[in-house]
Amino acid sequence: DGGITQSPKYLFRKEGQNVTLSCEQNLNHDAMYWYRQDPGQGLRLIYYSQIVNDFQKGDIAEGYSVSREKKESFPLTVTSAQKNPTAFYLCASSWDSLRTTLHFGNGTRLTVT
Amino acid sequence: AQKITQTQPGMFVQEKEAVTLDCTYDTSDPSYGLFWYKQPSSGEMIFLIYQGSYDQQNATEGRYSLNFQKARKSANLVISASQLGDSAMYFCAMREASAGGTSYGKLTFGQGTILTVHP
């Protein structure tokens, strides 16, 4: 079955450590996205990529970094520069078309103490 | 300015009744798409329904329909015959054709509405 896999589901880190969240898709989608969700809030875009080796900053890119070396993979690194990293992180992918929906992974809940 | 506004933080509905969740949007792009997603407490995002700005008819998908009023820039979700399993957070989102200079841009989400269905 095609889909998006995010791992791990829960992640705990100490403050000051970088952490990388994994996102893999086998839907052959061109575009991939990372969103952040805080409790009771909507989704905010961190980074997105429409083709391999290219990505764009979203609305809240500070303190995050990404890479897109393969079409299937779009890992997100939460760096120590991110002031409030504790959140729910959702990865998504889609065809690069106006009408197509995003397909989401099940999310990673990151807690930094 | 907010591009997507959902003014109802929470809504309650009796099982088997219909409910309308409000969404207004702001764009100057003539070509855009509007989406509704459901997020249960498990956190997954479930796509419900899509409306294109040039679509002549309101979108429907089973018990979900979209009341699209283009001049008012509103895209309200109507859920008919509510079920207990409909209790979740609901998000309205928009994709603009020309956002950010890219071909189809990204989705912008509203703050969401928590729907609670009472038995």
Structure characterization notes:
The complex is a heterodimer of chains A (113) and B (119). By secondary structure, chain A is mostly beta strands. Helix content of chain A is 0%, strand content 50%. Chain A has strands spanning 4-7, 10-13, 19-25, 31-37, 43-51, 54-57, 64-66, 76-78, 87-94, 103-104, 108-112. In chain A, strands 2, 4, 5, 6, 9, 10 and 11 form a seven-stranded mixed β-sheet that branches. A four-stranded antiparallel β-sheet of chain A has the order 1-3-8-7, with no helix packed on it. Chain A is globular and about 40 Å long. By secondary structure, chain B is mainly beta. Chain B contains no helices and twelve strands. Chain B has strands at residues 4-5, 10-14, 19-21, 24-25, 32-39, 46-52, 60-61, 64-69, 74-79, 88-96, 107-109, 113-118. In chain B, the strands form three sheets. In chain B, strands 2, 5, 6, 10, 11 and 12 form a six-stranded mixed β-sheet that branches. Chain B has a four-stranded antiparallel β-sheet with strand order 3-9-8-7, with no helix packed on it. A two-stranded antiparallel sheet of chain B has the order 1-4. Chain B is globular and about 45 Å long. The N and C termini of chain B lie far apart (38 Å). The mean pLDDT of chain B is 92. The interface between A and B is medium-sized, with 27 and 27 residues.
Q: Key features?
A:
heterodimer, A: 113 residues, mainly beta, seven-stranded mixed sheet, four-stranded antiparallel sheet, B: 119 residues, six-stranded mixed sheet, 0% helix, 50% strand, globular
Give a brief rundown of this model:
The complex is a heterodimer of chains A (113) and B (119). Chain A is mostly beta strands.
**Strand proportion of chain B:** over 45%
Helix content of chain B: under 10%
Overall 3D geometry of chain B? globular
Radius of gyration of chain A: 13 Å
Query: How widely separated are the two ends of chain B?
Result: 38 Å
Q: What is the radius of gyration of chain B computed over CA atoms, rounded to a whole number of angstroms?
A: 14 Å
